[in-house]
Amino acid sequence: MMSETDKEHIAIFDSGIGGLTVLYEARKLLPSESFLYYADSHNNPYGPKSSLEIASYVKNAVEYLQQFNLKALVLACNTATSVVVQELRNEYSFPIIGMEPAVKPAAEIADGKKILVCATERTLSEEKLSQLISGLDAEDKVEKMALSELVCFSENEQFEGAKPKNYCKEQFNGINWEEFGALVLGCTHFIFFRNLIQSVIPQHVQVVDGNLGTVKRLTSLIETTALDYSRGIVYHESKAMADAGRFERYLKYLQELDQ
Ligand code: DGL
Known about the structure:
By secondary structure, this protein is of the alpha/beta class. It has two domains: 138 residues, 3-Layer(aba) Sandwich (Rossmann fold), CATH 3.40.50.1860; 107 residues, Rossmann fold, CATH 3.40.50. The protein contains eleven helices and nine strands. A five-stranded parallel beta sheet has the order 4-3-1-2-9. Helix 1 crosses helix 10. The mean pLDDT is 94. The structure holds D-glutamic acid. D-glutamic acid (DGL) binds next to helix 3.
């Protein structure tokens, strides 16, 4: 029987609970793997912070995660990826899978119409996103919108009800949806609001995220484990874990969203 320290873990990192949406998908494709989820709750939210601050938080977290036997690391955070993924790849030998707003798949289904990329203010202002958009020759097709409050709503487990709904409506006020074919959820925290967002925008606007693409990329980079190990999820947090059960509650909520 393998001990906890012998096991190879796939680490999933986020500033908070957003990366659980990636963990949720990863468990479907990789049911026999051991996952280590890390939330940098002490420093959440990342979105309003500077690139320098975010880079230093993420580097500290990965330094901490290094003590575990890591098979791969998923930066399940668009903000962290846009700031520091390259530096981490230069430093560590295990595969590091980053995330970026799913502009490419959105462009494929937007039917020639515009795409609204929703993400944190940091992701929206980083060079990485501009390069992605210009690489697709989509500068005149993309509009950007920060939905920062959704990060706070989700950290407070407020996924439904008037507050997040009115917030989204206010942010979307003035958008001529006839011009748009797709909306990108470019922050993992936003996935919890997929249904809510879809309910306040017209049906023809397709809501797209990059979670499945990220998990497929992870799967292609690792050797999957034989099924006979006992697998599971361990949770770590940068702030003292006051409510250890909350991560499981979020996963349960995602399961309900899926139905
Ligand atoms: N979940 C993160 C992302 O995908 C960051 C949210 C935040 O900390 O502001 O960008």
